[in-house]
Structures are given as structure tokens and as C-alpha cells.
Amino acid sequence: MKLATVAHEGRTTAAVLDGDRWRALPADELSALLATTASERIADLAGAELPGATPVLPLPAPRKVVCCGLNYADHIAEMGRELPKHPTLFAKFADTLTGPEDELALPHDLDVDWEAELAVVVGAELRSADRDTAGRAIAGYTVANDISVRDWQKRTLQWFQGKAWDRTTPLGPVVVTPDELDPVAGVEVICRVNGVERQRGNTRTLVFDAADLLAYISTFTVLRPGDLVLTGTPGGVGSGMTPPVHLADGDLVETEIPGIGTLRNRLRLTDSRS
To answer: 171 has which bridge partners?
Structure first.
């Protein structure tokens, strides 16, 4: 099952894909629907067809966005680090999220980098969950790119200020339920910049998979339906190159996970934040 928040006739609505047609669900967006409806019941709620509907940011209002850094063995190696015993976590705000084809606007003179990621959507409340419970609580998966401002990230040992710029984490275009996608079996995570492939990794090589991460995080903070967990990026980021490569004004970043879809986001560097 593929779920989304779609734009249709001047408003947004949660929707489910029925063949090649979007059908309305009873909420203005997917965050609100997941907060009130068990994911296994959603298919029964499909309503009117939505001709011409277009997917937008699928989850605009998660309570929590938790990210795992250094979670693919190849990326850990290119950053010169050892395999971690525990997940390396940081948080974002919902303000960092943006739609699957939205422009990424940042001030000029920043070292902007790409990080293609699989994102996990929580579907049930989790507190101190074990791995099996956490796995059953996954509502689905979507595509993300943790666009990072490296010079700000490196100002201190804490990454937060390089990861939390507003409207710089594209997400979508759809949320695919676990019956249609199995990251443990392996899915490709791909990033292209101006058509040139920069990243291609497989979720089989994650150090901590989706269930591991949800269980671990739920030990110290509750996770609720609609929350997001980003699982990390494979090797091939710009800052890992010699010399480092950063995004320039007008660059097109495409982030693809087969079975979910592709994000297409163009970077615009400006004199001030707009």
C-alpha cells in the first residue's frame, strides 16, 4: 500500500494509491491520519478519487524526527571512524522537512552536502520496546535526503546546527507499507547530483536496522504514530571526497529508493534566508 499527502484542487488531503489513482482518506494530511488511525485500517477508509492529485510533503507534522548517523559500513569507513557499538543519534525539527520536489533555499557561502536515506514512519506508540515490538510498529518507509551544512556541522562536536536548517530535508513522495518493502532483505538507496550518481548503497549493510533503531530510541523517549526515524546514509557524500565536493547554486539532487520513488530538489543559494 502506498500512502501520501496530496495536493488536489487547492487543498491537501491524505490519500491512498488505488492502482494508478489516488483516493481520499479522512484527514487533511498523513500525519493527522496516523495519529488517529491504525495503519492496518487505512485501506478500508479510501473514499473519492482525486484526479490530477500530486504528492507533497507526506508527513508535515511529526512530533519527533530522529536521525541516525554513521550507520552504513562504507560511509563509516569514508569518514574515518570505527563501527559503532550504539547508534549515533541526533534530532531534527519538523521545520526541516520539505516536499519531494520543493526547492532547497539556503544562504550562499555554505558547504552544502547530500545524504540519501531511508526513513521509517512509526505507526504505533512505543515505550521501551523490544526489537519484535518495534518491528510490528512500523507503518511504512519513505525517501529522505539529510541535506547537511558541513561547515556549521563541524563548528562543534555536536552536529545539530549543521542538520537543522529549515526546509532542507526533502521527504516522500509516498509512504510504502512494510508488506510491499523489506529493508532487511535489502533495498537500494541512490543519490544523483545533476544526473551523476554519487551514492548507491543497500540497506542490507545497515549496522542498525529499522527495528533496532526504533527499539533503542524508545528506551529513552516515547515514539508516537507519525514520528520519523532516518536510518543513515551510504558512502559517497561530498565531504568524503578528496578534495571535498559541495553543492552549488542550481544543482539538482535526485534521491531514489526503488519501490518508493524519487525526490527531485534543486538548490538555490541566496544572499539571505527566504
So the answer is: 144
